Amino acid sequence: MEKEMNTELVLRTEKLTKIYGNHKAVNAVSMNVRKGDIYGFIGKNGAGKTTFMKMVAGLAAPTEGSIELFGKREEKKQLGKNIELFGNSEADLQRKRIGCLIEQPGTYPNMTATENLEIVRRNLGIAEKNVVAEILEFVGLSEAGKKKVKNFSMGMKQRLGIAISLMRNPDFLILDEPINGLDPAGIKEVRDLLLKLNREKQITILISSHILGELSKVATRYGIIRDGVLMEEFDAEALEEKCKRCQKIVVDNTATAAQILEETLSIKNYDVPGENVIRIFERIEDAAEINRAMILGGVALKESYLAGQDLEGYFIDLLGDDTKVR
Amino acid sequence: MFNLFSGEFYKWKKSKVFKVCLAAAIGMILFIYLMLMLVAKIQNGEMENGTGGVVVTESNMEEEEDVFAQYGILGIVSEITGGGFELIFIAVFTCIWVVGEYSNGAIKNMVGKGYSRGKVFLSKYITTAVSVIVMNLILFLTMLLLGVAVMGTGEVNGGFFRAFFSYVGVQLLLSVAFCGVLVAVCEFARNIAVGITISMVLVIFSTLILSGVDLLFQALHLDVKASTYWIMNVMSDCPMGAIDLDFMGRAVSVAVMWTVLSLLAGMIHIQQTDIA
Amino acid sequence: MEGVLFSIVILTAVALMILAGRLIRYRSQIKHMKEELSMLRQEDTNYRLSSYCRIGETEEVIRLFNEILEKYRRETAELKRENRTYRESITSISHDIRTPLTSAKGYLQMLSGEDVPREKQQEYRKTVEHRVDDVTGMLNQLFEYARVEAGELEFMLERINMTNLFADTISMFYEDFLKKDCEPEIEFSETPCYVKADRQALRRVMENLIKNALVHGTGDYKFSLRKQGDKVRLAVSNRTDSIEPKDMERIFERFYTTDTSRTRKTTGLGLAIVKQFVTRMEGEVQAALTDGIFTVEIVFPCLEEK
Q1: d(CA C259, CA C272)
Q2: pLDDT at position A76, please?
Q3: Could you tell me if C188 and C275 are in contact, meaning their C-beta atoms sit under 8 angstroms apart?
Q4: By the CB < 8 Å criterion, does B6 face chain C?
Q5: Any CB–CB contact under 8 A between B158 and chain C?
Q6: For residue C303, what is the DSSP state?
Q7: Does residue C80 sit within a domain?
Q8: In the prediction, which pLDDT does B63 show?
Q9: Helix H segments across A167-211?
Q10: pLDDT for position C140
């Protein structure tokens, strides 16, 4: 965990809360996104993913809590108090380094893709005029540059949205369900694009989804949100560990059992998750031998079975029972 | 901020909203002149009353002159604009232009990008105001040219231009103020249907409502005429010709007051309200 | 008179306003650039300098600056990556050299011991010699590469019968293929191909290609030398299971090797040398991987037959 301390944080929220009426859409979320992460933000629809991202992107004001972007802190704006007509917080200035695609991409349907990007280019004060063509090429829309956006397919619109978010060479990319509504080929394309951006330009990415399978191939860290609460945050390796297939044994005395594992069977890779439970990750195929050793060693073996939470099962547990995770 | 202007200008060039609104307004002016020409011909006995569905009821039959001679170029201009005719088109344009940013989500590409929200609103207001000025100028020019084409250059002289330009100047000032109110309304509504409804109510019924308020104040023995301070009343009160200092002062103060009020309201609203 | 005066005043006022506007925009632009530059200096970022407004040639300045910035960032990233490979390769080369040396030392110790039968002594000596040869080979390659890199190697370009040279080189590896128990498919052009090249360098290129195939290949060896238009194409291909599509773009990089095992026999310099030599002799080289078949092809302009 020392690694976590030393690594630069791109985003740190502290008890970030958003209340709509009586409903806590986002409830005291403290999230840490490290530099270089691809952070998979997972929750079912309506769990508060988009609201959270809007607050980070500066589109919505938090009710409580604070946001720290690239180490610059932003306190919540207090209604009626510090109204600054032209004011900009330091975190606001850091938002220049963020690219976002939240909900639908903001485009003018009656204009072409090129024209839409040209507007963004001018708005952001990008002096390089060729950026528009380059980015269209990068997201694979060069052919469709002259087509009006209203004639775009869902996948093309999403890619145009990604193009808009990339206009300023961001350090931090916030993507809200970018693979929603894409066909399998499109999903793969976006995934490869994200990996490329992450590897080649060291862009940190915060990506939300309710489709878990797609994120598990790119994410390096996960955050699970359920009813506005950040349930858990963990690394991809930790997830792998969690979902490792293992032999689970339920015994009366875990201490003796552990000793038998180490001494007799020379198994070191196991853990004790519950009072009477041991999970063994090594030599899973030798279940019979393990059982025999336990009984010979005088340990009462109550149960012994091959376990291994599959990824989806694990997430279904976290996200809530009524969720259907595809 | 200059970058936002540059983006807005590009959008303005590429989008059809302005052109369509302008064309519709010009078409409307042409239509009005056509009707007036019909009326004049009937009055002059060149056509039978009722031609093309136009029925002229002569209120005072002793009047020898036709409608053009009666009003003159400037008179007709002030008759058309005094009723807030061009404001309808300005309102439609403003709603589409401002609310469009919210309905298609493009506002997300401007807010939270390093610009303060106040500046985003202000740039939207300024581009709308400039569009309104351009639209107004073209409309006044059209009316002037049509007037000259129909009535000839008989009344055109130095005094004519002085009257015309001072009238146009006051109207421009007031319509820019009115456009500020509309932009603020759109910012509050953030929805095209709501925005257009409120704007139309303002354009069509505000003077009516205010005269009701005036009556109410009168009944309460209050020495305040609310209508004095409303942009549209000042617009229709504007005399063609000699504009005295009193009226000038009233026009400027009303324009400034409403501009400042609506800008403040809009800027505070955009800053305090989340982008959906 | 009054009218003239009035218009002069108006014109001056307008001119002053325009000038003031330009001045304000210049100042804002400079202030904006200053803010962003200080941000760029502080942060490790991809952000590029942006423009506040379009005024004068400032945008051109920004574009030029960004070009330099981009170049710097690309180079830094490249350097970082190269440094990493370099560090890794130093470690592995030391390992590569130490392994045969340690082995040789072991045999020498045994030799110096007593009671070693004569025939065993002979065998040990042979082994030591082999190990030392291995090390020498590796060091030679390293040295050669270093000299090419430094541009010290002189190339004597002459007219060479490439067909003969290639046949000659392949025959030297005949035994190695026998040991692998497979027969390579060989395809030569009907008429001999002549190219302009340095004999030693071209031979080294061919040797490296064949050695590379022997080390990484698992069968389906194919050597072909064809004349195509005014070009001579020499292709070496083999089936492989250690090379993946992701390796392709870095395959000619120095010290790049797909073999990450501890007992590898390559320095990762073979193909890097091929590339260096071929380019220096004005040829082209490319690699491809299709359906598990790895192919390296070198192309030279063909000389007329005499």
Answers
A1: 15
A2: 53
A3: no
A4: yes
A5: no
A6: B
A7: no
A8: 54
A9: 184-200
A10: 81
For residue range B112-156, what is the model confidence (pLDDT) as tens digits? Answer: 887 888 888 999 999 999 999 999 999 989 888 888 887 777 777
Chains that touch C (3 or more CB pairs under 8 A): A, B
DSSP chain B: -HHHHHHHHHHHHH-SHHHHHHHHHHHHHHHHHHHHHHHHHHHTTSS-TTGGG-----S-TT--S-HHHHHHHHHHHHHHHHTTHHHHHHHHHHHHHHHHHHHSSGGGGTTTSSS-HHHHHHHHHHHHHHHHHHHHHHHHHHHHHHHHHHH-STT-SHHHHHHHHHHHHHHHHHHHHHHHHHHHHHHHH-SHHHHHHHHHHHHHHHHHHHHHHHHHHHHTT----GGGG-HHHHHHHPPSS---HHHHHHHHHHHHHHHHHHHHHHHHHHHHS---
Tokens of C181: 């128990």
Identify which has the larger pLDDT, C174 or B261: B261
Chain C contact for A196 (CB, 8 A cutoff) = no
Residues of chain C with pLDDT under 50: 260-264
Distance, C-alpha A49 to centroid of its chain: 10
| Alpha-carbon gap, residue B139 to B150, rounded angstroms | 16
Q: What is the pLDDT of residues C171-205, one digit of tens each?
A: 888 877 777 777 788 888 878 888 888 888 888 88
What sign does the dihedral B54-B60-B64-B70 (CA atoms) show? negative
The distance of C62 to chain A (nearest Cα, Å) reads 7
Domain shared by C291 and C204, yes or no:
yes
pLDDT (tens digit per residue) in A133-144? 999 998 888 888
Question: Are A167 and A87 contained in the same domain?
Answer: yes
Domain range for A267 is 244-308
Residue A178 lies in a domain: yes
Provide the domain count of chain A.
2
Residue A84 CA to residue A87 CA, distance in Å, equals: 5
φ and ψ at residue C106, rounded to 5 degrees: -55, -45
B182, pLDDT greater than 70: yes
Contact between residue C96 and residue C261 where contact means Cβ atoms under 8 Å apart: no
Give the helix, strand, coil percentages of chain A, each rounded to 5. Answer: 35, 25, 35
What is the predicted ipTM? 0.81
**How many structural domains does chain C have?**
3
Domain interval for residue C230: 158-301
User: How many CB pairs below 8 Å do chains A and B form together?
Assistant: 98
The arrangement of strands across the sheet holding A229-235 comes to A98-101, A172-176, A204-209, A38-42, A221-226, A229-235
In sequence order, what are the beta bridge partners of C298?
Answer: C234, C285
Which residues in chain A are closer than 8 Å to C45, comparing Cβ atoms?
97, 171
* Optimal mutation site among A35, A124, A169, A197, interface C, most CBs of chain C within 10 A: A169
Residue reference for tokens 């202007």? B5
Per residue in B8-50, pLDDT (tens digit) is: 899 888 888 889 999 999 998 888 888 888 888 877 777 666 6
- Using the 3D structure, point to which of A238, A254, A286 is the last residue of a domain: A238
Distances (CA, A) of A204 to A11, A220, A299, C13: 10, 10, 50, 52
**CA distance linking residue B108 with residue A104, whole number of Å:** 10
**Model's pTM, two decimal places?**
0.72
Nearest CA in chain C to B115: C52
Dihedrals φ, ψ of C183, to 5°? -110, 120
Q: How many CB atoms lie within 10 A of CB B225?
A: 15
- The three-class DSSP label of residue A175 is strand
pLDDT in tens, A281-301: 777 777 888 888 888 878 888
Mutate which of C36, C50, C53 to test chain B, going by most B C-beta atoms within 10 A? C53
The candidate with the shortest Cα–Cα distance to A54, out of A37, A67, A38, is A67
- Find the CATH number of the domain harbouring A272: 3.30.70.980
A151 CB neighbour count, 10 Å cutoff: 10
Q: Which of residues 162-191 of A touch B (CB under 8 A)?
A: 164
